[in-house]
TrEMBL record:
This is MFS transporter. It is found in: Cell membrane. It comes from Paenibacillus plantarum. Residues 22-262 form the Major facilitator superfamily (MFS) profile domain. Pfam families: MFS_1 (PF07690). SUPFAM superfamilies: MFS general substrate transporter. Keywords: Membrane, Transmembrane, Transmembrane helix, Transport.
Amino acid sequence: MLIGDDAKVQQEQQQTPLWTRQFIALTICFFLLFLSLQMLLSSFPAYVKDEFHVGNIQASLVTSVFALAAIISRFATAAIMQYVSRMKLLLAGLIVAAATKALYSVASSFATLLSLRIGYGIGFGMASTILPTLVSRIIPLRRMGEGIGYFGLSTSLAMSIGPSIGLNVMKQAGFLQLTMIGLITSLVIFPVLWLSRSKREQAPVEQTEPIRQVVLPIARTKPEFNRRLLFPVLLNVFLSITYNILFAIPYCSGFEIRSIQA
């Protein structure tokens, strides 16, 4: 009977299309999340140096504390997801990220700004962890690699156009307007996310419940870490290091916000 159930699930997976409304909506949400990040990433250290008159090391902290907070938040989110609804955690992360971003331009001190960056890292880490988890549940198994590839292209697209938008807005209008555009971009995620809600929560339960009852005594052992993941993880680390160095060069060379406005 289990074999028949497995065959039925595989047949349904083969008939399920990849480009569903839910998949497109979640991909757009991921794109908007990273676009909002990239628009501010390229101009943020320059704004900090000009506004608070700090050195290069202090200016680099606005990026470092954000990254560290996002990493820690991702580990915590992965554990919390076992007990709390993914949608609730996602909404909480998006709200935290949007709220802290709205307060960037009114921060009265460098320490306050660092606190806001930590809060934004927590919210961003939560949202950027849950969105791929949600999209992996609606991609057909036989097209998982293809679907994740298309989904991941949203970050590359945001990375390619976000800094250009941010620098141009910074030059023409200033940091306040840039933060407002970033905030609006984050808020657009909420109505788009609403389109991805239907049929996502109840579908996997009906398919996996009979099998889960049978294999439960066997599946209690904790799975071992797959060491084959170490190589792609290491490649991703090297890629991220080179990417961040490109942003650090102008600020270590004495680049000021006045050079943008010139």
